[in-house]
Amino acid sequence: MSNVPYKRLNKDDAVVLLVDHQTGLISLVQDFSPNEFKNNVLALGDIAKFFNLPTILTTSFDSGPNGPIVPELKEQFPDAPFIARPGQINAWDNEDFVKAIKATGRKQLIIAGVVTDVCVAFPTLSAIAEGFEVFVVTDASGTFNTTVQQAAWARMSAAGAHLLNWFAVACELQVDWRNDMEGLANLLSQRLPNYRNLINSYTKFTAK
Amino acid sequence: MSNVPYKRLNKDDAVVLLVDHQTGLISLVQDFSPNEFKNNVLALGDIAKFFNLPTILTTSFDSGPNGPIVPELKEQFPDAPFIARPGQINAWDNEDFVKAIKATGRKQLIIAGVVTDVCVAFPTLSAIAEGFEVFVVTDASGTFNTTVQQAAWARMSAAGAHLLNWFAVACELQVDWRNDMEGLANLLSQRLPNYRNLINSYTKFTAK
Amino acid sequence: MSNVPYKRLNKDDAVVLLVDHQTGLISLVQDFSPNEFKNNVLALGDIAKFFNLPTILTTSFDSGPNGPIVPELKEQFPDAPFIARPGQINAWDNEDFVKAIKATGRKQLIIAGVVTDVCVAFPTLSAIAEGFEVFVVTDASGTFNTTVQQAAWARMSAAGAHLLNWFAVACELQVDWRNDMEGLANLLSQRLPNYRNLINSYTKFTAK
Amino acid sequence: MSNVPYKRLNKDDAVVLLVDHQTGLISLVQDFSPNEFKNNVLALGDIAKFFNLPTILTTSFDSGPNGPIVPELKEQFPDAPFIARPGQINAWDNEDFVKAIKATGRKQLIIAGVVTDVCVAFPTLSAIAEGFEVFVVTDASGTFNTTVQQAAWARMSAAGAHLLNWFAVACELQVDWRNDMEGLANLLSQRLPNYRNLINSYTKFTAK
Amino acid sequence: MSNVPYKRLNKDDAVVLLVDHQTGLISLVQDFSPNEFKNNVLALGDIAKFFNLPTILTTSFDSGPNGPIVPELKEQFPDAPFIARPGQINAWDNEDFVKAIKATGRKQLIIAGVVTDVCVAFPTLSAIAEGFEVFVVTDASGTFNTTVQQAAWARMSAAGAHLLNWFAVACELQVDWRNDMEGLANLLSQRLPNYRNLINSYTKFTAK
Amino acid sequence: MSNVPYKRLNKDDAVVLLVDHQTGLISLVQDFSPNEFKNNVLALGDIAKFFNLPTILTTSFDSGPNGPIVPELKEQFPDAPFIARPGQINAWDNEDFVKAIKATGRKQLIIAGVVTDVCVAFPTLSAIAEGFEVFVVTDASGTFNTTVQQAAWARMSAAGAHLLNWFAVACELQVDWRNDMEGLANLLSQRLPNYRNLINSYTKFTAK
Amino acid sequence: MSNVPYKRLNKDDAVVLLVDHQTGLISLVQDFSPNEFKNNVLALGDIAKFFNLPTILTTSFDSGPNGPIVPELKEQFPDAPFIARPGQINAWDNEDFVKAIKATGRKQLIIAGVVTDVCVAFPTLSAIAEGFEVFVVTDASGTFNTTVQQAAWARMSAAGAHLLNWFAVACELQVDWRNDMEGLANLLSQRLPNYRNLINSYTKFTAK
Amino acid sequence: MSNVPYKRLNKDDAVVLLVDHQTGLISLVQDFSPNEFKNNVLALGDIAKFFNLPTILTTSFDSGPNGPIVPELKEQFPDAPFIARPGQINAWDNEDFVKAIKATGRKQLIIAGVVTDVCVAFPTLSAIAEGFEVFVVTDASGTFNTTVQQAAWARMSAAGAHLLNWFAVACELQVDWRNDMEGLANLLSQRLPNYRNLINSYTKFTAK
């Protein structure tokens, strides 16, 4: 009945792709405030760590003006495959990148990057064409302005990509709070100040 | 010819699902002003009562920071099935919740909740996958910001969910004003101040 | 290749439906400024007249608080079928309304009304289900706010409706400026102040 | 040192003026959503009652299209001076209105009304010219759009009016929560859903 | 006590200045939609006529790209002083313009024009410096974008100009509806569609 | 699996269509600021030149108020087919225009124009119906306001058009930076000030 | 010549007041996103520490629904005067609070809090009335919505308060980068992601 | 009568100060789009050249991450005093900068820079305190977001600064188009695309 059947994210079948979150390129992002964007990207990093998802980093010309990958991501994933692309704009055109993905044996790609309309959209469209399920983390992907953002979302959605946000990724992978309540609460509380406030109020009140 | 054939809401085939409208979680909602959101949620409650629709309430960890269900809803539906989920994030993963729905024998699910991208989107996607018609009440469902809202709407719409608002739900169920003109006018007048103003002007003018 | 094949508006196959543009109901519209909305609705009326399209007016309870149809429309179409619905919310549930449409023998419905999510969306969805091509004039249709507007657009678009604006309707029906250049220029100049300015500048400059 | 010395609201020196909150005129308001505006106006009414402030109601042509005063206000202040102005646009031009104010012996005017740029701004400017302190409740005063709102605010502020919101009025009059903690909490909880949520969470948690 | 004492508009002391509403220049205006702006400018013209205020028109290089004055204004004021400035940007630098103002013997200048930051702001600042009271009709004055608008408003307000909107001008000049109720109602009803709707509903209801 | 399979832009199969970027018509555009729009359109022109894509220019009544094509485009493509349409609104109705396209033997149409809902949407829909792949450059296409823009995007997307932005076009055609790094960097640096800043900082720092 | 003479912040004459940043009250803030607000408040805390400014914390009913002070602030200032007000809404009404300020012997108050219109505005107005210079850190102060924010800003500005943002506070206190370049760079880089990116790009490039 | 008497810009008494328009710092600007901001800054540069105004450039740490001055400005003013400040944040604290200004003997300072709240606001406040007239070019000055922008504008305006935009600067200095019609038209046409369109339409039409 539906056009795009529900593909539920599964922590045993998902891999995270972080594309071109570089110190120079991020200065181009204006569809999120810098703090909002930083928080969202690091939240996605937290999720990848928390669920032990294989994670693949890639950059575009990081020796040039685009700048190096933001250090927080590199530190978070010191041993992850890191593909510094020598020139391919679409990361899917880089054999090492695709090999690294295929090496995981996983079919669900959780992707985010800078800029949404190119560094995210191109590999998303290519991966769908090869039969992968692609989940675009819209709030960890940034671009020039909201007009460009909306066109890029429409293009990816029309091609069958699943649009969602980092919080939905975390919750869909977690399935049940009881799998690790403290762990998830801790993750959320670092990235959602109002959730942290709820926890702090609760702790205070129930301690009385 | 169309992709998603018109499924008309029918008061004999519809059930209302109110998911995680809890005092703590609502503080996370920023895509509606607090008053706007409260009014919309209570309007949906009014509709469920007015049309005698079976209504199912559920909460996530209501003994923790998420807080209890907002009292107005609990008071409005004192005898409705109330499923306090012990940990499942997707309400559809809770057997009691799904059983309560199936026990009604109805196939049209009218759903709203907090937050849209998780507590609404997940059961919506699961229910569609099981063959239910799902009608998402977009203005009685809240989340972190409009960017997240738009991605969640896109994901649900792509999967075949029907997006609509509480006023459309009321009107589609009513079919004809003559079924209970005073009742519907009273309902609308509590929740649409400008409609109430029209009625009050009318009453004044025609009383002359 | 495409999902919704191009159905080109044709002045010999189109009929205009103006639904519930009533003096009371219009006070509910807040997704357009009052002047913007009035201008758009009257522009659509101008188009119907200019192309001699059969036009059907309908109202909901015009003896009650919803108020009478706005006089400009009634004056513009003194002899058009005018169906004052006694209670049906979905105009398609009113036999006279549907009969009036079918009596024209036309299959392309150009529809606008107040409010978008109900008075426009319901007959749009019903008509598509019966095989009509429906063209929703989005800027001559108003509702409570843009959140409601966006959900209603999404629902109708998913069902196969064509979303467009009055200017596109005029241009698609005209096909070629040479069919009546002065007539179309006059129409546009009444409703698009910046276009009128272009004409006035041109006239002044070339008269020198 | 400052241009406009701090005039602190004092419940023994303040009077509330509610100007032209009529069922017809309110349909002109588009700088607030209808629910937001209704909530703000009724909150101001609550405040007047709670602090036993003398309150004066006035309307403009309430037998004509402007419509009667909204019933909630009339019910809230059944015995308040009610001046149905026969024609004066600036309420200050109506002798009865000014007499009613002067009869209270108070010098601090808390004013709100529809529309901000006329029904609020004119008496505000006149009263300041006569030596009154005027506190404009900006969120209980509505008008056509935010451009008009901003110009009206600028005009009143330049003339020495104090711009504030209903919540600030309540808090400035209360001075100390201990003067009536339950009373104020109850008032706020009816008009600030997120504050009500805080109270409900707190009650639940501390009851454990 | 106040910084800018209330100067009440008086129909016997006011003159209207319409500056550079030209067919070319108006295409630069983007802080109002074209329809909104046209309606506001013509409303101000209506007001000048209705109160028989002396009105002075001026243009900047109307034989060049700036284009001629919009015909509606020229038609509305066929006998008004019309000063086609040969080059002065600040209309106050044109002797004929200032002479025409001084010939009226009036001290209250109601001004609007295109663009706000130049054609309105410059003569406003000059006139204040010469002791005139200047009332800037903010919504009949347009410019490039709202950032420019806000800076221009701030500059004029700081210099002592009164910022208001056309509706406030009409109401302040009228003083009392009884001075000509039908006339004012007619004026408003042409320019405020929602007010017209109120009148039409009222007429319908009370005719029953 | 996807609805709209990924069609990757290919510089050997693409042709650029620039429709009605005329000096008069552009004054109607209000969904982009004038500078933003000019920059986007010229960027698309730069891309066509850089990749040597066949480019076709067309205008609507350029001897009338719509005005001539903006000179920058004409200068950029002095030898390109230039079809001054004598009256057809939909450029696809003009035989010369379609012939010029077919003469290139290319199947990927990159289109932009003014106004989006007519001059872009009509040929886009017609071309898709004839089997072409159409890539709409959303940020080099302008119209009256964002409401109209959104409806036009929805209509084209539903029909199978690919929505994207000029930067994505450039990157998809380039494939690999190494194909001409300096050339692309130069192009981007003229049209993306923040990218130019990155390059200038880089050059300065590495020169030390 | 100026109305409000420049009072330059001086690290030897300034004291920081953090008012009611409590876990419950912050859930009322909607004029900033939660992340944006958290970042701004903590940045102000960083500044107070960096410049060794005396800092005073105060809360309103922190044993009730308002919740405890956010732990980050308490941890940052373990030894600062902490005044848990038993009921006074205006902190200036609390003798201990004012005494703590006067004990510093400083005359420049840097204030921020929740909510802007009450907890910040009231002590700001009171302090100005007593001759203090008050610097309101607008982006570390939050409230219900931007309409309330704007009215509160206007009220404080009219009374002579200096409106500024945390970044301006840091820079005005620092005077010269050379006073502690690394220290300030480190502070900014924690709170301004784009500034951190500049530093990281620079470090990478110059290390080559 | 006015608070801030009209100080008319005079090309013989004005000097232009361009503060910290550096390749790194500009990446912090988000209250204007990058293209909009670049265009505004270069327009101000054009004005300084066109009127032969003495122009002074200054930078903050241009050998560090802040980056060098944008090359276009350096090229436009190769011989202008260029003060690379070794550490002073407020340019007014740099003796060379103030000396360069005083050396011109001029009293009207036209200032723009990055970021508005610091690099523009600080020298503006200092200069006013020393008796200069300061004209802040609001649209050639950028900062982190509009909230910061608005607070900075309010602070400078309260201190007596004149807020205006580059177009107003150009027009106020020009006084009369006849002083150099072609020159000014050329300047505007490079920076105001819609004005260029007017000129191009005019030229085409009158050439016929």
Automatic annotation (TrEMBL), chains A, B, C, D, E, F, G, H:
Pfam families: Isochorismatase. It comes from the Bacteria. CDD domains: YcaC_related. SUPFAM superfamilies: Isochorismatase-like hydrolases. Residues 15-165 form the Isochorismatase-like domain. This is Nicotinamidase family protein YcaC. It comes from Pseudomonas batumici.
